[in-house]
Amino acid sequence: MFGLFKKAKPHTLTIEGVGSFDVQPSETILNAALRHGVRFPHSCKVGGCATCKCKKTEGTVKELTSAAFILDKKDLDDGYILGCQSQLKSDVTISVDALSGERPAEEIAATIVEKEALTHDITRLTLQLEKATDYLPGQYAMFSTPEVTSGSRCYSYAAPAAGNKVTFFIREVPGGEMSGWVKNSAQVGDKVSVDGPHGDFHLRSGQGDMLFIAGGSGLAPVLAILEDAVRHKLSRDVTFLFGARTEADLYGLKQIEHIRQNWSGTFRFVPVLSQEAEGSGWDGARGLVTDHLPENLNVIEQVYMCGPPPMLDAASEYLQQAGLDESQIFADRFTDRSTNTINNEAAR
Predict the structure, then answer these.
(1) 8-99 is classed in which CATH architecture?
(2) What is the pLDDT of residues 40-98, one digit of tens each?
(3) Exposed, middle or buried, 274 (CB in 10 Å: 0-12/13-18/19+)?
């Protein structure tokens, strides 16, 4: 008799290109995905806009509201459902175009609308694009200008996608043609070109604690990921180590503090200075970022890091020795993606 009232068990949702996780019987696909930190596209959450539509490739779902009210016949015939109105009746596999990380890159003309020196060698450029673009926070674009004839350079988007505007943090590299032009010659109103998005550095699904590590202009993709996670009310606990040479090389601190104050879980920010003068008044962490990994690991599920290769290589080696699997570590190195050799000018 009592077997009739067995508690329903969760089913597994697999999002192609993202990962798998459990969905509770009363949860919709959208709510479960957001709970696991997936940047699932959505707007109204009541079945009225189709922003959360996804293609079901395996399994069965219960529709709270029929998708036929908002999706056209072709979408329905192709297996599309609404994430916000679908609960799992079995294990289900879906694909979401906006989450694949394989968005087609395109070259878009742009105009510099803001230029700001963040430190003595890092400049923030804000561009107005001729058309809106979209990308996963953490990805990068190829940046070019008619003023530099030696080709384009790779720079990470420094903020979540915002329609027709994009932002980059560009560090001046000694002798670097592009970074030198950005710092010394670029002006508001100059015409440039952006080719993107590229790369597979972006937030993955999960529920456990996360560790973020950034060095120098590697702050750009990390800030983009964290700001987007705040918007989606991600509640996973975070420790963020930011390595710089001196206190004067720290930047983005107001943005980081805003993220900390609005983070739904625990957010710890630890700036680490490697060359700060003794007696300067700095009472924070000193040394290399890797010096401070032991006390900041705890139970980490995923690590995201961007910065100079020596820093990331040392951190990766320590993390794996500490028991993390390589599949838990996601890194974006300052390398020339076309040749896979270290080339700071080409990379940042």
Answers:
(1) Roll (3.10)
(2) 777 667 787 777 889 999 999 999 988 888 887 888 988 999 999 999 999 999 998 76
(3) middle
